[in-house]
């Protein structure tokens, strides 16, 4: 399974719209902050997005990988999602 950054960004946007999150209409890029000054996600929102992305893309992330990661930007989330799946590869187009 090959994922692009764009597909992951779209997945995040779809999840936020599904949660009726206030930032759901923002343009999402790799540099978009997950919290302050960006998507304004709370810690609970972030967990919901991670779980939603796991379900959406059919991957399961190791808890240690999640706990040992920093989630400052969308790019950080993309990196964790893809590094946590041995079958997923990132095509940076």
From TrEMBL:
<protein>
    <submittedName>
        <fullName>Acyl carrier protein</fullName>
    </submittedName>
</protein>
<dbReference type="InterPro" id="IPR009081">
    <property type="entry name" value="PP-bd_ACP"/>
</dbReference>
<feature type="domain" description="Carrier">
    <location>
        <begin position="2"/>
        <end position="85"/>
    </location>
</feature>
<dbReference type="InterPro" id="IPR036736">
    <property type="entry name" value="ACP-like_sf"/>
</dbReference>
<dbReference type="Pfam" id="PF00550">
    <property type="entry name" value="PP-binding"/>
</dbReference>
